[in-house]
C-alpha cells in the first residue's frame, strides 16, 4: 500500500534535514533492541519532536516499548476479528477532511451504541490507535492533532467500565506514544461527572497534557474556536460533510490498511537484546517511567 511521500516531506518541512535523519539512523543501528524503523515513521517521530534529536530518540524508545508491553492494545488490530469489529460498531471514529486554520487534523469520536455493556475500553483504545496510525501514514506530517469526544449518552455505567490500569495505558499512549503533535483533547456535550473521569487520570498525567484538555458544555459553540465550522460535520453544527459519510470513508481507509496493521505487529522491542537490564511492563506502568515530554507552543 502506498503511503505519504518521503520526498514531499522535505519540500513541506524545510526544517527536515537529511543529515539529521542520518544521525538518527546511525543511533538506531546501535540500539540492538529496537526494530527496523522506516523512513516514513522516522520523519513522523522527528517532526513530532519539532526536529530536536534527543527528544526524538526518547520518543522512539517510548513508542516501541509502549507497544511491546501493551499487547492487548497493539496486537490483533484486525477489523476482521470480532472484538475490533464490535468496537467500530459501538464507537464512531471520524477523520475530518481538511484542516483547521493552523494546519491541525481533527478526529471526532462518538458512541453509536449507548449501552454500557457494549463499551470495552481496551478495544476502544486499540481502534483509536488504528485511526491515528491510518491518518499519519496516509497524510504524513501535519501541524497538530486534535481529538474531539462527544460525550452524549455517556453514563455512570460507562465510567464503571473504565479501569484504572487501562486508563493509565491510555494516557501514556497519548502523551508518550504518538509520533504526532497532540494539540488538544476536547469533550463536547460534557457530562456533569467528568471530574470522576479526570480524577482517574490526573495522577499519571503530565501537566503538559492536562493543559491540552478542553471541556465544552451541552449546546455550547466554544468548540468552533478550535475547529472551524467549515470542516465540522453538519450534525455537529458545522457546514462540512455529513458525519455518516466521513465515518464510511474513515472505516474504508482502515480496512484498506489491514495488511499493514498485521505486519506492524512485528516491529517491537526485543528486550533480550536491550543494553543493560531488560524492561518489564511494571517498569513503565507500575511506576512513573522515563517518558517523552510533550511540546508546548
Automatic annotation (TrEMBL):
Name a GO CC annotation attached to this entry.
membrane
Q: Which GO terms describe its molecular function?
A: phosphatidylinositol bisphosphate binding
- Record-linked InterPro entries: CRAL-TRIO_dom, CRAL-TRIO_dom_sf, CRAL/TRIO_N_dom_sf
| Pfam family name, one | CRAL_TRIO
Source taxon at top rank? Eukaryota
Which ranges carry the CRAL-TRIO domain? 81-244
PANTHER family attached to this UniProt entry:
ALPHA-TOCOPHEROL TRANSFER PROTEIN-RELATED, CRAL-TRIO DOMAIN-CONTAINING PROTEIN
- Would you tell me the protein name for this molecule? Alpha-tocopherol transfer protein-like
Q: Which organism is it from?
A: Sipha flava
Amino acid at each position: 500500500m502506498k503511503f505519504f511521500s518521503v520526498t514531499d516531506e522535505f519540500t513541506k518541512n524545510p526544517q527536515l534535514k537529511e543529515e539529521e535523519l542520518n544521525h538518527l539512523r546511525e543511533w538506531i543501528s546501535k540500539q540492538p533492541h529496537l526494530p527496523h524503523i522506516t523512513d516514513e515513521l522516522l520523519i513522523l517521530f522527528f517532526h513530532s519532536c519539532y526536529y530536536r534529536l534527543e527528544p526524538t530518540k526518547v520518543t522512539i524508545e517510548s513508542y516501541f516499548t509502549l507497544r511491546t508491553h501493551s499487547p492487548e492494545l497493539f496486537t490483533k488490530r484486525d477489523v476482521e476479528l470480532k472484538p475490533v469489529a464490535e468496537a467500530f460498531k459501538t464507537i464512531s471514529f471520524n477523520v475530518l477532511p481538511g484542516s483547521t486554520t493552523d494546519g491541525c487534523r481533527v478526529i471526532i469520536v462518538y458512541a453509536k451504541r449507548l449501552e454500557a455493556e457494549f463499551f470495552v475500553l481496551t478495544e476502544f483504545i486499540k481502534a483509536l490507535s488504528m485511526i491515528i496510525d491510518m491518518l499519519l501514514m496516509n497524510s504524513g506530517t501535519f501541524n497538530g492533532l486534535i481529538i474531539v469526544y462527544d460525550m452524549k449518552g455517556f453514563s455512570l455505567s460507562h465510567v464503571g467500565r473504565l479501569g484504572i490500569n487501562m486508563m493509565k495505558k491510555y494516557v501514556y499512549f497519548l502523551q508518550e506514544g504518538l509520533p504526532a503533535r497532540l494539540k488538544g483533547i476536547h469533550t463536547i456535550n460534557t457530562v456533569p461527572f467528568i471530574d470522576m473521569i479526570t480524577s482517574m487520570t490526573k495522577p499519571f498525567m503530565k501537566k503538559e497534557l492536562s493543559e491540552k484538555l478542553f471541556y465544552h458544555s451541552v449546546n455550547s459553540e466554544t468548540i468552533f474556536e478550535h475547529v472551524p465550522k467549515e470542516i465540522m460535520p453538519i450534525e455537529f453544527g458545522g457546514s462540512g460533510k455529513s458525519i455518516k459519510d466521513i465515518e464510511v470513508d474513515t472505516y474504508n481507509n482502515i480496512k484498506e490498511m489491514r495488511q499493514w496493521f498485521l505486519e506492524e505487529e512485528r516491529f517491537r522491542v526485543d528486550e533480550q537484546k536491550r543494553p543493560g537490564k531488560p524492561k518489564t511492563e511494571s517498569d513503565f506502568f507500575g511506576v512513573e517511567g522515563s517518558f517523552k515530554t510533550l511540546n508546548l507552543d
